Amino acid sequence: MISSLPLKVCHIANSDIDGGAARAAYRINKALNSNYNDKIISLMRVLKKYSNDPRVKGGPAFNNKLNFEFQRNLNRVSRYLYSIQYPNELAYSIAWPRTGLCKELNQNYKKNKIDIVNLHFLSDNTISVREIGSLKMPLVWRLNDQWPFCSCEHYSTNFDDFNQP
């Protein structure tokens, strides 16, 4: 039986309109709202909000700016230490400090505010890898780059990682 209730989609990205991947995610969100407004409710959750769109919520999880800045700085220090140990490799994001976004999303899912999450471009401590694994709702991940399968790098510079012996 098909439900008559609209599907509630939450798009997760670092930004809404700053950068190519962010603009693509924003356009998807906007298109779903424009074309399927009686069947789909599409919202966007970002760290950095630049638009004035009311369907985009910006800022750190639970608006906890102090925790967010601590986690972001921990991420930066980790990248710096990684670069000392591996000077020939670039580490864009360590992606292990918790951001709190998983907890926020799981609470919204429990309260029936969202049905499905669509991950887009994740960077600068948007959500950690462990948190992604803790999401309780169905998940779709739009692959903008190699981040999900290259140890949190946007694009791998070491092609030997992909060669099989």
* Main sheet record: 5 strands, parallel
- This entry's quaternary arrangement is single chain
Distance between the termini: 50 Å
Q: Which stretches are low in confidence, meaning pLDDT under 50 for 5 or more residues running?
A: none
Helix content: 25-40%
β-sheet strand percentage: 15-25%
**Gross morphology:** globular
Number of strands: 5
User: Rg from C-alpha positions?
Assistant: 17 Å
Structural category: alpha/beta
Estimate the mean pLDDT confidence.
82
Could you give a quick summary of the protein structure above?
The protein is an alpha/beta fold. It contains four helices and five strands; from the N terminus they run βαββααβαβ. Helix content is 32%, strand content 16%.
Pick out its properties.
single chain; 165 residues; alpha/beta; 5-stranded parallel beta sheet; 16% strand; globular
In terms of topology, how is this protein built?
Layout: E1 7-15, H1 20-35, E2 40-48, E3 56-57, H2 65-85, H3 101-110, E4 116-119, H4 129-133, E5 139-141
Parallel strand pairs: 1-2, 1-4, 2-3, 4-5
Please provide a written account of the structure.
The protein is of the alpha/beta class and 165 residues long. It has 4 helices and 5 strands. It has helices at 20-35, 65-85, 101-110, 129-133; strands at residues 7-15, 40-48, 56-57, 116-119, 139-141. It has a 5-stranded parallel beta sheet with strand order 3-2-1-4-5, with helices on one face. The radius of gyration is 17 Å and the shape is globular. It starts with 6 loop residues before the first strand and ends in a 24-residue tail after the last strand.
